[in-house]
């Protein structure tokens, strides 16, 4: 490797370390003191950089505090790309999420210290939740492209990739919300399975024909009317 190539790589590693240090400082301060009690200047000071350096990497303290979650979308999408080609798209998405949850090396949410606490705070703080929403949208856009490639279609012309990802991501979001509100940090994998099971044929199928009940009630009403008429006819 030439010295010319070493310099940009060294700068890239240093930039990555600076970003990670800022993100960790924001993460810790927000959880320890609450979002409203933390300033950008305090995050920069904790990371031993100035405010200008902070602004080079993040647009807000919320973005810095949630930065560690961005990699999770990348991990799920990497697992989605690795799924066997013959798998139906929604099944592939489901199994990609479960692969991420089962991989200790990927540090899924229920195994990573304090992520549960961070998502609890995100549920309570609109500014944090808005940033979390944007992180999810970015990941879903990549997922749509992956599913479209699996199907061999153009996602601008074929709606199936977007529908698939919206359904799968919706199941994951529902599980995450139930996880946070349920107060059981170890329950996430079971809740994700339950949420994807809710996308089964039972939920998507035609509703059971309830007319039987209506017909029975209608028949009962007719019988009652007939009985009343018969009673009135008795002298």
- General shape: globular
Beta-strand residue fraction: under 5%
State the separation between the terminal residues, measured CA to CA: 113 Å
The sequence of SSEs as H and E is HHHHHHHHHHHH
Largest sheet entry: none
Low-pLDDT runs of 5+ residues are 211-220, 223-235
E-strand count: 0
The chain-level mean pLDDT equals 86
Which structural class fits the helix and strand makeup? mainly alpha
- Rg result: 27 Å
- Quickly count the helices: 12
- The residue fraction in helices comes out at over 70%
Keywords:
single chain; 235 residues; mainly alpha; 12 helices; 74% helix; globular; disordered C terminus
Written overview of the protein:
It is a single chain. With 235 residues, the protein is an all-alpha fold. It is built from 12 helices and no strands. α5 (70-82) crosses α6 (89-102), α8 (126-151) runs antiparallel to α9 and α9 packs across α10. The longest helix has 31 residues, at 3-33.
Per-chain topology:
Elements: H1 3-33, H2 40-46, H3 51-57, H4 61-65, H5 70-82, H6 89-102, H7 115-124, H8 126-151, H9 160-182, H10 188-197, H11 201-204, H12 211-233
Helix pairs in contact: 1-2, 5-6, 5-8, 6-9, 6-10, 7-8, 8-9, 9-10
Summarize the structure.
By secondary structure, the chain is an all-alpha fold.
